[in-house]
Design goal:
Blueprint: H1 34-38, E1 47-50, E2 57-69, E3 74-86, E4 92-93, E5 109-115, E6 120-126, E7 142-145, E8 153-154, H2 155-160, E9 169-172, E10 180-182, H3 188-195, H4 200-211, E11 224-227, E12 230-233, E13 245-247, H5 254-258, H6 261-270, E14 275-280, E15 286-295, E16 306-308, E17 317-322, H7 330-333, E18 349-357, E19 360-369, E20 378-380, E21 383-385, E22 389-393, E23 401-406, E24 419-423, E25 426-432, E26 462-467, E27 480-484, E28 490-492, E29 496-498, H8 500-504, E30 514-521, E31 529-536, E32 546-552, E33 564-568, E34 571-577, E35 595-600, E36 616-617, E37 622-623, E38 628-629, E39 635-636, H9 648-656, E40 660-664, E41 671-672, E42 677-679, E43 682-689, E44 700-707, E45 731-736, E46 743-745, E47 752-757, E48 763-768
Helix pairs in contact: 3-4
Length: 785
């Protein structure tokens, strides 16, 4: 039966969808009209594959629909993943004639936008007859639903067309490659206990259900759907937060940056590796989908790039993996009255590292995944299985090798996106501890009380440091380490790591020097504060790494999302937004005005000071909230800044004497929702202003474009200016929905483009200019080896 720790007659792993969907389509939405339920929704960013200097390539988009109506039943929580072209100008393009070739005069320019009249996202199609990258008309010649867009491929439909017996799904019974087990009915007896199935027959049912066998006649959840007049089983579950990650040729460039010949050899071996998209879904599966091989240039038919499909598997699932920690939760998926649970909901991190293979250190492409708010503690026999992170060697995407699975009673929910650190010959994955329940236990349900899940912790915030090359049982201070920040009632934000030598002295070898992470502190979410901590990785022994708190917000301004970091001369700048949006109750909280920050590490003067006791506070920063920059170079609204600068140069000079800047967000309840992007001295932030109406499309998203050294608009327009009063814009609306993190494209267009997917499934394609050169080009040619 279902575990019910709280004795509230509701399974503990059932919970409402949270803010990342932008719509909170859970228990409260049941009474909403069906057209709201049917619309496309997304919590992910888009993933961009641009393999040429011109920038053409592909864009991969995930979205989901909470419900689909058939004639005699409904199907819930359907996932979609599709590929579209990006042209050299940064436009999104359909594959209008279905030939997998990018032809600027044939393939339509696509604008994905939210229709307020229908409450759904639509694709507006524009012709470009002369191939100049500009639509021929201001209005689309055709508008189609998102699911009818001519794409390169759509993985959900392809998977629906795949016979259950033709899928490769595997798991692990012990968290290692040795315990790798095919998820087939022939292994039902082996997996029965972990599946918490009362019998082998029921274990077989669970396995068949996941694989895509119709079991609706046995009382299980109905996933039958009609596609082109034929009945299929929809197998791809909702993809909410796990942004698709595309991997093709080795791309870390350690050979170019550090002169590493071994990496050059690794690159040569795998330079023709086809593109594979890794994405998690909320049925607990990590999927690997083939994206084919993108080729630059003209194939002789007038293309600007084209895909080849040598293995005849483009857009198809290569394999899927279920972490051991999720196996006990599969039972909830089968319930005919299924509500919603999270599974593999964290974006995967894929990185090239050196691990032991065949007795020697070799380069490998390693995937590190987590569950975000999925999983939760669950009793299996005498064992409590907790949420986990896992690592898979995907160097050869057709032959994945499980490296490890890691969990710990103090880890909490696996909410944080990992950072990777190299010290000496070792490579480490860095995680932050996640939320816990009030009494210090895990929260694996949003129904644990009448107020729902609140994303808080009564434990101290901790870093977990894991040896990526571990091949034995987990032992503290041998192959994993815990570094306690000492910050009480707190959990960690997303960490980032930095190699200072790369920007200060690129002749030195690659080693990570520091990790930065925000911290959310407080037992009451309307009273959560923010800190930013620094972990100095200046020793080959992680046990010797030191932690300092270098920034603290005033008022209730949590720091959940990752910072962006940049070295400018003798200063190391850190950019971060305050705010949180993890749950429906976050919408209507009475909280302090949230802020955007840019400040200098107080213990960096060209190098990192090993002992840091200085904490920057908001009183150390210039408040630039009201500063207005105009086209003619005049400055106004600087009354709160010491010296009251009146022109651009004096503004830069005055702020340079401070420890940084801060800017109030425009509207009460507006908050940061993602890591900022820093390019060409411009820092881009996405923010969100929610609506308290859970039946609305989810509030409004905004993009801020600020000069990194002042926190104001730049002296030249980045995202435009007001022609009436010459005020340079620093903020622009993204329209309805929660914005994702930012994907940047730098191609043939002047400046760049920011792709931002809204929670509605619409993709905002924003042109911007930079304050400094951001495009690559040849400086010199050096013959290598």
């Amino acid at each position: 039966g279902k575990k019910d720790i709280n004795n509230n007659v509701i399974p503990d792993t059932y919970f409402e969808p949270i803010g990342d969907t932008g719509n909170d389509l859970g228990q409260q939405i049941k009474d909403a009209v069906s057209d709201i339920l049917k619309r496309a929704t997304s919590g992910t960013a888009v993933s961009v594959l641009a393999t040429s200097a011109e920038g053409e390539g592909a864009l991969f988009q995930a979205f989901f629909r909470p419900i689909h109506f058939e004639a005699d039943h409904t199907v819930s929580w359907l996932g979609y993943l599709q590929g579209l072209f990006i042209d050299p100008y940064g436009n999104i393009r359909a594959d209008s004639d279905g030939d997998k070739k990018l032809k600027l005069t044939i393939d339509d320019i696509v604008h994905l936008s939210y229709s307020s009249s229908t409450g759904d996202t639509v694709a507006e199609l524009f012709r470009d007859a002369n191939g100049d990258g500009k639509p021929d008309t201001t209005s689309p010649y055709k508008t189609v639903p998102l699911t009818d867009l001519p794409t390169l491929w759509e993985a959900g439909k392809n998977l629906a067309d795949t016979h259950p017996d033709d899928r490769t799904i595997f798991t692990t019974t012990d968290g290692t490659q040795a315990g790798k087990t095919l998820f087939t009915t022939s292994n039902a007896s082996t997996l029965q206990t972990l599946l918490r199935a009362p019998s082998t027959d029921v274990a077989q049912d669970y396995i068949n259900f996941v694989r895509g066998v119709d079991l609706s006649n046995k009382g299980y959840r109905d996933k039958r759907i009609t596609i082109n007049g034929s009945q299929r089983i929809w197998k791809l579950a909702d993809i909410v937060y796990s942004t698709p990650t595309v991997v093709s040729v080795p791309s870390e460039n350690y050979d170019l940056i550090y002169g590493d010949k071994t990496y050059f050899n690794f690159y040569n071996t795998y330079k023709n590796r086809k593109a594979v998209i890794y994405v998690g879904s909320n049925d607990g599966l990590l999927h690997a989908f083939s994206a084919g091989k993108f080729n630059q240039g003209d194939d002789g038919t007038g293309t600007s790039g084209y895909f080849t499909d040598p293995d005849n598997d483009m857009g198809k699932e290569l394999w899927a993996f279920i972490p051991r920690s999720f196996l006990p939760h599969i039972q909830w998926q089968t319930d005919k009255n299924y509500k919603h649970i999270y599974g593999i909901d964290l974006k995967v991190k894929v990185v090239d590292v050196q691990i032991t293979k065949g007795g020697t250190k070799q380069w490998a492409t390693v995937l590190i995944g987590g569950m975000r708010l999925g999983g939760g503690p669950i009793q299996v026999g005498s064992e409590v299985i907790n949420p986990s992170y896992f690592a898979i060697d995907v160097t050869n995407p057709s032959d994945p090798q499980i490296l490890w699975e890691f969990s710990h009673p103090d880890l909490g929910l696996t909410l944080t996106y990992p950072a990777v650190v190299k010290k000496g010959t070792k490579w480490y994955a860095i995680f932050g501890s996640g939320p816990f329940h009030d009494d210090g236990t895990f929260v694996n349900t949003l129904y644990h009380d009448n107020n729902g899940y609140r994303a808080k912790s009564n434990k101290t915030a901790k870093f977990f440091i894991v040896d990526i090359d571990n091949k034995s049982s987990w032992t503290l201070n041998t192959n994993y380490w815990i570094k306690d920040t000492g910050i009480t009632n707190a959990f960690m934000g997303n960490p980032v790591s930095l190699d200072i030598d790369l920007v200060v002295d690129s002749t030195k070898g690659f080693e990570s020097d520091v990790v930065y992470s925000g911290v959310v502190q407080g037992l009451y979410i309307q009273q959560q504060t923010g800190k930013l901590v620094r972990m100095l990785t200046n020793n080959d022994d992680p046990a010797q790494w030191s932690i300092s708190t270098i920034f603290q917000t005033s008022g209730y301004r949590p720091l959940l999302y990752a910072p962006a970091v940049s070295v400018r001369g003798s200063d190391l700048w850190i950019y971060i937004a305050s705010g949180r949006f993890l749950h429906m109750y976050d919408k209507s909280l009475s909280i302090d005005t949230q802020k955007l920050y840019g400040f200098k590490d107080p213990c960096f003067n060209g190098s990192l000071v090993s002992t840091c006791t200085t904490t920057v506070t908001e009183t150390d920063l210039a408040d630039v909230s009201t500063v207005v920059v105009k086209i003619d170079g005049t400055i106004s609204g600087t009354g709160s800044i010491t010296g009251t600068p009146t022109n651009w140069e004096s503004l830069k000079s005055v702020i340079s004497q401070k420890k940084g800047w801060m800017m109030n967000l425009n509207t009460a309840q507006e908050r940061g929702v993602a890591k900022p992007a820093l390019i060409g001295d411009i820092v881009l932030f996405t923010t969100y202003l929610p609506t308290s109406d859970i039946c609305s499309a989810g509030g409004t998203g905004y993009l801020y474009a600020l000069y990194s050294l002042t926190g104001t608009a730049y002296i030249k327009p980045v995202i435009g200016y007001n022609t009436a009063n010459n005020e340079i814009y620093k903020r622009t609306s993204m329209g309805i929905g929660t914005p994702s993190s930012i994907s940047i494209h730098m191609g043939r267009e002047k400046g760049g483009r920011a792709y931002i997917q809204q929670s509605t499934g619409a993709i905002m394609n924003v042109e911007f200019q930079t304050a400094a050169r951001a495009k690559s080009g040849y400086i010199l040619w050096r013959e290598k080896w």
